[in-house]
Amino acid sequence: AADFPVAAIRRDFPILHRPVDGNPLVWLDNAATTQKPLAVVESLVDYYLHDNSNVHRGAHALARRATEAYEGARAKVAAFLGAGGPEEVVFVRGTTEAVNLVAGSWGEAEVRAGDEIVLTELEHHANIVPWQQLARRRRATLKVVPIDATGALDLDAFRALLSQRTALVAVTHASNVLGTVPPIREMVALAHRYGARVLVDGAQAVGHFPVDVRALDVDFYVLSGHKMFAPTGIGVLYAKREVLATMGPWQTGGNMIDRVTFGGSTFAGQPHRMEAGTADIAGAVGLGAAVDYLRGLDRERVRAHERHLAEHACRALAEVPGLRLFGAAPGRVAVHSFLVDGTDPVALAAHLDRRGIAVRVGHHCAQPTLAALGEAVTVRASPAFYNTTDEVDALVGAVLEFVAGGVRPGPAAGGRRPGR
Ligand code: PMP
């Protein structure tokens, strides 16, 4: 909205002022990864300049400072997600690793032959393939909740798929293709009636709106720091205390043990049991700084600004002749997937790139979502709170320019342009 201090916000993100081939950068690839505020970058520099050490070992000052920073970041993440405490937060590499951890630890122990795992047509490959592999190993079956034409989940179908056989429901909190936000709380309540556990993929949610894992009553919540303005290489698995307590080790080695002899080993308590080896300590510190940054914003105003941007984008894109916009479920986050009839999406994205506008083209690691739309690829523009309506206008202007240029699909597009 007009009262959102976007100019001031943008000053927190130095990279947004970087020109690209003489054009101002227009970063509309936030669903792939977000840019980092100066406070996050400085937290990394500060950590490496002053506190760098391994953690939980070594009786010296820097080990104490690094441990304090690392565990402090865990406490910040726990509070940010509304967890019951820091002991419910496991640091991982990202969403992908968190799902693999749950499949490899909880899944191997709890999913039995004949059990069912319920997924949805909105899932990223990271929330499909680990379950597929687990199902194969455990002789379990995958069930899939379909989406409707707007990209909303078919909740009647979801209800019908649930049964005493359901071991797990794995569902995204926001689609990275369509922006759909499923009614997680309602889905959790339904799944719990059958004693199923629920894992929610928060990768595309946490950067857009506040999340309260206890209010949602989810069993597992997973996310990637790099999609919430933190560094790459750090992510989070939240697991309910009583669920995490039953989980055996996933990766093994240093840091996760209690006592080791050649006869056998005993393991540390949670969450350390899940954190074998030296963690990305600086990454955790950076994630803590991103949490501080987000908590310093008025997130209601952030959401209002994003809604304003999304409405502006939908209106402007709809004016482009032949443009088809995918995803219209109410309450979506700002992810705009589109195609322009009669034009090549890869050539379109390349044209946008020449204007300094970063979007993604492809299957977005969600091939089943695209298959449900009857497509193989889309162009995806995904704004964040630091984007402006001027940037959306630049996007739409460049799309119009491309369409007016009459670039046709296929090899002809390449053939027409000199030097290609
Ligand atoms: N889930 C969703 C919804 C995503 O958008 C992504 C990243 N595109 C992932 C999972 C995977 O995240 P990462 O690559 O950081 O592990």
TrEMBL record:
It is an enzyme of class 2 (transferase). InterPro entries: Aminotrans_V_dom, Aminotrans_V_PyrdxlP_BS, Cys_dSase_SufS, Cysteine_dSase, PyrdxlP-dep_Trfase, PyrdxlP-dep_Trfase_major, PyrdxlP-dep_Trfase_small. Its cofactor is pyridoxal 5'-phosphate. It catalyses: (sulfur carrier)-H + L-cysteine = (sulfur carrier)-SH + L-alanine. GO terms for molecular function: cysteine desulfurase activity; pyridoxal phosphate binding. Its EC number is 2.8.1.7. Pfam families: Aminotran_5. Residues 26-395 form the Aminotransferase class V domain. It comes from the Bacteria. PROSITE patterns: AA_TRANSFER_CLASS_5. GO terms for biological process: cysteine metabolic process. Keywords: Pyridoxal phosphate, Transferase. PANTHER family: CYSTEINE DESULFURASE (PTHR43586), CYSTEINE DESULFURASE 1, CHLOROPLASTIC (PTHR43586:SF8). Belongs to the class-V pyridoxal-phosphate-dependent aminotransferase family. Csd subfamily. Catalyzes the removal of elemental sulfur and selenium atoms from L-cysteine, L-cystine, L-selenocysteine, and L-selenocystine to produce L-alanine. This is Cysteine desulfurase. The lineage of its organism: Bacteria, Bacillati, Actinomycetota, Actinomycetes, Pseudonocardiales.
